[in-house]
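Many introductory courses stop at the sequence. We go one step further.
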Amino acid sequence: MDNFVVTFARGFGSGGKEIASSLAKELGIHCYENRILTLASQMSGLDEKLFQEVNEKIRNNGGFTSFLRGLPRSRSYIARNEQFVSDDKLFEYQSQIIKSLADQESCVIVGKCADYVLRDRQNVVSVYIEAPRAFCVRRTMEHMGVTEEVAHATITQTDKFRANYYQYYTHGNYWTNPVNYDITLNSEKVGVKNCVKLIEQYLLIKGFITPDMIQTEETEKPDQSG
């Protein structure tokens, strides 16, 4: 069977990354997110730190926006001003990696405007995961161990970065526009596990996978029926 790629865009705290990882695990394929930055660094010969500092972040009006260096790992919320050159070139390197991965293997790719980079390919399924703010705040507090205030600030800032990044590199397209995607799911209403199941069903409909390719916990257990 030919290669296929599932791309994920996701609101922060929506569980999009967890859904992407679970999908990849059940299908026995790789899930790429920040590893793309490592691969782009290796290909370009540039310090990986450059890619990390502009991970789904863009410049604004000729300068660079203030942005978080990573996400807060404590109850403090730390923002820094960073600068570097050739952010467009860094995006180009990332895009080359994404296209190369799509050529070589079936995989899941999270973020990085992958749906846009691979927009002309017929073997790509693009997914957008979102959820109400209260759900995202609760998940962020639980997973990051931060206060509600920090969770709100992190979600607002990160989603703003992602939206601006997407708009810039897609030449004006809007990040949450459902027309950009094959599937848009509300992870609170559907449930994280059921989101995975729905995406798998869509892949089955498209003919990208067969039922035997789905490795659930039940199918992985040996037969002990005697």
